[in-house]
Design goal:
This protein is of the alpha+beta class. Helix 13 packs across helix 15, helix 13 packs across helix 19 and helix 18 packs across helix 19 (552-567). It is elongated, with a radius of gyration of 34 Å. The model is unreliable at 1-26 (pLDDT under 50).
């Protein structure tokens, strides 16, 4: 947000000169087109095609580079306000004066630097063209040869990221910047010191030694930034025991711990070359910017606006005139719904998983996301909010809603054969499915015991559109309203045959994120469609309402069936969790020919809905069930 790119004036100066400077008529040509050719040259810095009186193009080019070069990539424009032939000739030579307005877009606000200068042109009778009398004062008021403009910026205070209780999740916390100061040791020790420090910090020795070698003789070469808290494992004494190694105290915007909601919150650091290039001059080398996550997505509002002072400097680099000055504007805080305690508990539970995993918790009454933890095996990816996975049997609550709308009730008798066939493809119940629940059973038991064949056979009669409408009513197909570019879910409305049959048991081509299935659970618990939210400000556009809203009666029927899952079905292990009554659904989704499977559980207790997911599990109840039980137990204390 500090600077904008220098303008590139896309004009053909040569063509403009040919058409405006060389008019071959008896009358003196209008000087304005010639003045406009001047402004084109001021923008490009190239006077090679501009006829000059008393000087040459290289001198003019150098003068512009000297005067404007220190302004870097700040965008500047030049406009001719007026140009007219002077009433009286000077020493028998016709002259014209043009007023040129120059504007520097120094920051993202309307606080531009604008000034006017005059340019004098003389008419060459022989060549029948206007020629510019170049003067450095054309570039800026009172500017003389050797002087220049420069903008000095003062960084704004970065906004904080706040949690649901208003406390800062990300704020300035103590750090130490560890590196080699080459002025503090002899040249013959630079390599050994760099390697010793890299080994101590457990970073790549060759890479760091190479950076130290290639830097200047008086350079400070940073190796790493360490949190200066109880988690720091390297002491100052260990660092300073290496010749030239230094630990410099500093502060950085950081979350409570290194891993806390990192895929969501992201990080802050020095702008990379890629970020600088993509910013088109808004960000400069050395700027602290959001590098990922919400820190990056909301960098503009978090960063605020730098203060800037533009001055004219003489050849001795002394400021001789201040042209513009503004104070920095602090960044805005970013308010989230995350509950710090719940997020910490969720992260502690997925920390021990051996594959990608997640726990997402939503407050059904408000839709606020209270926790969205992604396990360490996701390698920094935001599994909780952006993962796309087959939801398996937890998706049966969507199919159940479609069946309720088609006339079934929790007490309706349905057929649950051990296996069934659709268009030549065989489907069967999971290994270990209880034989007592095979045959004619109440519809509620199809949820409690997770009968595949009931739902597979129901698909054709319902049709894909009815299933997609049910998913929409449970919040799974809404546009993202979290403010974090989340993926909720995907359920096609045109599937047929075996694809539709597989969709009914959460396989086929349906997808959901852990957030999506937590949303489904929250909608059932709330008895109305829930749209999850994470970012409270800046205001995020609310998703459109579902075409077919979830009714209270439908929700009560789903709650009744999901209560059976915990009472005597696949999730009866949750009965031991203290507190209010729990409802839920387990799910397993095989994703390859070797029958490797995703493990899912969704559950609700009071005003809390939870989804747990493990990419490679033994089964929903066996792998994801304990995560939900532990989460509800710990946050309920």
């Amino acid at each position: 947000m500090r600077r904008f790119p220098r303008s590139v004036v896309v004009l053909s100066v040569a063509a403009l000169v040919a058409s405006t400077f060389t008019a071959c008529s008896a009358a003196t040509p209008d000087p304005k087109p010639a003045a406009e050719a001047l402004t084109a040259a001021l923008g490009s810095g190239d006077f090679s095609q501009v006829p000059l009186a008393g000087s040459d193009a290289s001198a003019a080019n150098k003068s512009v580079e000297t005067a404007f070069g220190p302004m870097g990539d700040i965008k500047h424009t030049h406009t001719v306000l007026n140009a007219a032939e002077d009433e009286e000739a000077q020493d028998g030579v016709k002259t014209a004066t043009a007023t040129v307005q120059t504007t520097w877009d120094v920051d993202s606000s309307e606080n531009d630097l604008t000034y006017e200068t005059q340019a004098v042109m003389e008419f060459d009778q022989d060549a029948e063209q206007w020629k510019l009398r170049f003067d450095p004062a054309i570039l800026a008021p009172d500017l003389v040869a050797g002087e220049y403009l420069d903008a000095r910026f003062s960084e704004a205070k970065r906004g904080q990221i706040l949690g649901g209780n208003g406390n800062a999740l990300v704020k300035n916390r103590p750090v130490v910047r560890v590196g080699i100061d080459k002025t503090r040791t002899e040249a013959d020790q630079w390599d050994s010191s760099a390697r010793s420090l890299a080994k101590l910090l457990e970073i790549d020795e060759d890479s760091f030694a190479n950076r130290v070698e290639k830097s200047g003789a008086k350079a400070w070469v940073q190796a790493i930034v360490l949190r200066d808290d109880a988690s720091r494992e390297v002491s100052d004494d260990e660092i300073t025991g290496i010749p030239g190694a230094v630990a410099q105290p500093d502060e950085m915007p950081l979350a409570p711990t290194r891993t806390f909601a990192r895929p969501i919150l992201g990080s802050v650091g020095q702008a990379t070359a890629e970020i600088i290039k993509k910013s088109e001059g808004k960000i400069q080398a050395g700027d602290q910017v959001g590098l990922s996550g919400l820190q990056s997505a909301y960098n503009e509002s978090l960063a605020g606006a730098s203060g800037v002072t533009v001055s004219r400097y003489n050849a001795d680099h002394e400021a001789v005139a201040e042209l513009l000055s503004s104070e920095p504007v602090a960044g805005e805080d970013l308010k989230l719904t995350l509950n710090e305690n719940m997020q910490t508990v969720a992260e502690s539970l997925v920390a021990e998983t051996d594959s990608a995993s997640s726990i997402v918790a939503i407050k059904p009454s408000t839709g606020q996301i209270l926790a969205a933890a992604s396990g360490p095996e996701t390698n920094g990816l935001n599994t909780a909010l952006k993962g796309r996975y087959a939801p398996g049997s937890v998706f049966k609550v969507v199919g159940a809603l479609a069946m309720l709308r088609d006339g079934e009730t929790p007490q309706s008798k349905v057929q649950c054969p051990a296996s069934t066939e659709v268009d030549g493809k065989s489907f069967k119940n999971y290994d270990g499915y209880p034989t007592k629940a095979v045959g004619t059973i109440p519809f509620a038991e199809a949820i409690a015991e997770s009968c595949n064949t009931v739902f597979v056979n129901a698909g054709k009669g319902l049709g894909a559109k009815a299933v997609a409408d049910a998913a929409s009513s449970l919040g799974l197909l809404a546009d993202d309203g979290t403010g974090a570019e989340a993926f909720i879910g995907s359920v096609p409305d045109d599937s047929e045959g075996t694809e539709l049959a597989a969709n009914m048991i959460g396989q086929g081509v349906v997808e959901s994120s852990p957030l999506g299935m937590a949303t489904v659970m929250a909608s059932i618990a709330n008895a109305s469609t829930v749209h999850p939210q994470l970012v409270l400000n800046p205001k995020v556009k609310e998703p459109a309402k579902a075409k077919s809203a979830l009714t209270e009666k439908e929700a009560e029927q789903l709650q009744e069936m999901m209560a059976g899952t915990v009472d005597h079905g696949t999730l009866k292990a949750l009965k031991s969790v203290p507190g209010a009554k729990i409802i839920g659904k387990s799910g397993t989704a095989e994703y390859d020919a070797e029958r490797n499977a995703h493990a899912w559980v969704i559950a609700a207790q009071g005003d809390l809905a939870v989804a747990a997911f493990v990419e490679d599990g033994d089964g929903g109840a066996q792998t994801a069930g304990p995560l939900v039980a532990d989460f509800l137990t710990k946050v309920g204390k």
